Amino acid sequence: MAVRRWSRRVFLRASAVAAGAAALPTGAAFAAESPAHPTGSLSRASRVFLDRGLFIGAWVTTPVTKRYYPTVQEWRQSGFDTATFYEKPYFNKPLFDALPVRTQWALAVYPAGGIGGKPAPGRSILSTEQQAHVDSLFTLCFGDEELYSTQLVDWLAAWFALTHKQHPRVLVHNNQYAAEWSQAELRSYVRTAKPDLLTYDAYYFGSPDPYKGGGRPDVYDALNAYRVVALAGHDGTGRSPIAFGHYTEGFKGGPGYTYVPSESELNLDYFAAWTMGAKWTNLFRWEQDSSVFLFYDKDGAHTPQFRQLGRIARQGRRLSPFLVRLSSTDVRIVPGRHRNSAGDITPNTRPRRVDVWDAFASPYVQSIKAGADGDLLIGYFQRLPGLDAASAAHELPPVAAAQFTAPYVKAFMVLNGGIAPNTAGTADSTDGSGRATRQRVTVALHRLGRPNRLLRVDRGTGRLEPVVLHHGPGGTDHFAVDLDGGEADLFFLTTGPSYDRPPALTAGAAVRAVEPGQEFTVRATAANMTAAQPIPDLQARLTAPPGWSIQPDGSIRLGDLHPGRSNDVSWRVTAPADADAGDFTLIAETTYRYGPHTTVRGGARVLAGVHIPYLAISDGSTNTGITDDADPTAGDLDGDGNSYSAQALAAAGLTPGGPLTAGGITFTWPHFSPDNVIADGQAFSIHRSGTVLGVLGACTYGAASGTGTIVYGDGTSHQFELAFPDWYGTPPAGTTVAVTLPYRNSPTGPDQNPVNLYVASIDLDPSKTVQTLILPHVSDGLASGIAAMHVFAIAVS
Question: CA of 388: how far to CAs of 326, 393, 404, 491, in Å?
Fold first, then answer.
């Protein structure tokens, strides 16, 4: 669908107070799970955040609206540091006249009336009143929740450039609702418009019911979608990352705005962002209306949620001097467990965009365990690329400054994701409180050459406090920390040489997809990218699923690997003769021995999915997206129970097994059920030649795109970008529409809104035979609110 249930656009309409490597089979190198640690230069965003600290803001109205805004005393009590104005005249002079000079502020949904085009030549971005306070203007958001288009990006680029020219210390951005723009669209926007930060809104907490799947993977998935694009920066190299963040929930959720989020849910809204490297959080929004918003009761008194959010904001300000000097390098999850509807204990649903933690995530954390059943998240950081010694130490006490200047210092955050809803749903309930969802987290660290020293940032004082380490067997140290639900702690570990650039492992193969019984070669190269330390007793090993043959089996000893040197290794792999079609994982990994009692697993680990292709699209179809009008609940295309109508399709000329010609390509309409493939990297045998390959499909919950691969019979290949718009609503300009239907089926009957099917064309080398088509990985299955790509037919013309 075009709009998420809990986007701000929906809220504003409803609220009465609203104011108007690629993997082995693709033939490229394996990609290490942890990102590289590039050196680079400070982006504009990094420089401004170093100066101002984390953005911990809240939307505040203006006197013109006649609605309530905070007093000076309330603002100071709240802990927020940046007031965001979103209504005319886009400033609150009475409030700011009473606040200390240089109190920070921001703008959102700017300018009045929307963007609508490029700024007029000579236009002043700010009013005279605003310019008087420009030294404390932090961020400026042009527009809000617009659908993506290249025209919009061009307009934004012009507004951003003009703002940078007039006010170079103001950070600029646009805002979307989560999953409104695809990853490809976000990257294009960053590359072309050059925003200083990426932001989105999504409000997750609206029900007292237990979480389906045990946890809240949707929170982590949305954050990571923006995290990976922001960390790549304008040029995509990661050498100069920009910032990112999201809006947080300041209103009651659920139908009729009656649900008050629990304390642990409010915690997670902020601490998950900080654990994943976000530097911008903005509360939507500060209002006195107790029927919708969280801060006041019906008598105008502050609620427990006002105090809870104030505590969170103050703790964020204590973390701020450290987090603004760090850049996220990796984030992993340790899934918890829950009791399902059948009463069985089962693992929590894991996020689609966050990898499960293992010892290969870093060379220094050996294990991490939860004392209860909640999820854990661990975020890894490096010093901000381009951070010099002067900026690292500026206005920091010597002990704190040393964490950014001394060698062998590692930073990581541990989050207790074991939150719970407010089952009573009321403001004074303690259900789902931080204390009720507290977990003890136990972490084991490698000792690499010298005693470890671990410091924790005290969130109450901002001071670095030593953590007691207990020595364990095998050269390890252990510590435990108690974390309230949704909260996280930041740690700095000083250890021995731990290979800031650990053994790099790349691997590739001449084949892209394999047939049952086929033998192929995997070649790998291990390289020592450290400046001075040899990697002792390096060994490499390849593992495959049961029934696959690997020669040589077991570990291959590569010996000591000296700085700047590399070593090659290869294996012969044979797929089982009776292997079913599907995706299979090979794992290449290294170990090295630091000392006589310390073997470090985690020098490098890379995964590859080997594709054994399906013979026909019907063999790989797993989703039913076409239903009879008399039985609409038999299918579910979008995770909400909606589907294409078989009767509407027939009226448009699409009958099971019949032809459909669109975009100059003739397809065969599915005559089987399930009737479509959810693009997840599946491979399909083609064995045809032509000038173009056509794909018939559509996306749900927003447009989506991804990179697929065409593999030819001679072993060559090329990649392509496959993209489809959302099936719902008016087709975007420039798309090839195969058919538009006047309605769709919903679980309760016809929904009188148009839906579409689209054609995407991929140019081929006509002199070659296409052996295999590998679809992009867009989603892991189907879920409400998560973009998915559906493929109904493939044809060569």
Answer: 12, 9, 9, 21
Q: Compute the chain's Rg from CA coordinates.
A: 27
Q: What is the pTM of this model?
A: 0.76
* Residues written for the chain: 797
Show the low-confidence residues of the chain (pLDDT under 50). 1-6, 9-39, 499-500, 510, 597
In angstroms, the Cα distances linking 473 to 366, 368, 480, 529, 584 are 12, 16, 16, 29, 35
Integer CA distances (angstroms), 286 to 76, 84, 144, 290, in order: 14, 10, 18, 11
Torsion 768-773-774-778 (CA) sign: positive
Q: What is the token pair recorded at 68?
A: 């309530």
| pLDDT score recorded for residue 589 | 82
pLDDT at site 756: 97
Contact of 495 with 533, CB cutoff 8 Å: no
Report the C-alpha gap between 722 and 364 in whole angstroms.
39
pLDDT at 502: 60
Q: What CA–CA distance (Å, rounded) separates 267 from 259?
A: 16
- List Cβ neighbours of 364 (8 Å cut-off, separation of 6 or more): 410, 445, 446, 448, 493, 495, 498
Beta carbons of 422 and 414 less than 8 angstroms apart: no
Measured distance CA(411)–CA(383) in Å, rounded = 8
Determine the pLDDT at residue 532: 67
C-alpha distance from residue 593 to each of 151, 442, 554, 774 (Å): 55, 24, 17, 39
pLDDT tens column, 495-532: 865 544 566 666 665 456 888 898 888 888 888 876 56
Query: CA–CA separation, 484 vs 438, rounded Å?
Result: 4
Q: Which residues contact 113 (CB under 8 A, 6 or more apart)?
A: none
CA dist list (Å): 183 to 97, 658, 721:
42, 35, 12
Six-digit token string for 14: 């409803």
Distance CA 183, CA 779 (A): 12
Closest CA to 534 of 545, 542, 526: 526
Find all residues with CB under 8 Å of 32, minimum gap 6, and list them.
Answer: 504, 505, 604, 605, 606
| 679/788 Cα distance (integer angstroms) | 7
Which pLDDT belongs to residue 531?
56
At 160, list the tokens. Answer: 């951003």
Quote the CA–CA distance of 776 and 791 in Å, as a whole number.
11
Contact between 755 and 727 under an 8 Å Cβ cutoff? The reply is yes
Q: Residue 788 in contact with residue 782, Cβ under 8 Å?
A: yes
User: One-letter amino acid identity for 565?
Assistant: R
Residue appearing with tokens 């009226």: 651
- pLDDT of amino acid 507: 64
Element holding 150 (H helix, E strand): helix 150-166
Given a contact cutoff of 8 angstroms between Cβ atoms, the answer to whether 575 and 518 are in contact is yes
What DSSP line would sit under 254-278, residue for residue?
A: TTTT-BPPPHHHHHHHHHHHHHTT-
User: Three-state SS for 616?
Assistant: coil
CA angle 272, 459, 444 (to 5 degrees): 70
What is the pLDDT, as a whole number, of residue 702? 87
pLDDT score at 36: 38
Q: Distance (Å, rounded) from C-alpha 657 to C-alpha 284?
A: 51
Torsion sign across C-alpha atoms 167, 171, 177, 179: positive
Measure CA 658 to chain center: 40
Sign of CA dihedral 174, 219, 280, 297: positive
Helix (H, G, I), strand (E, B) or coil at 788: strand
3-class DSSP state for residue 98? helix
Instruction: Specify the pLDDT at position 603.
Output: 56
- pLDDT confidence of residue 397: 92
Please state, in angstroms and rounded to a whole number, the distance separating the CA atoms of residues 169 and 108. Answer: 17
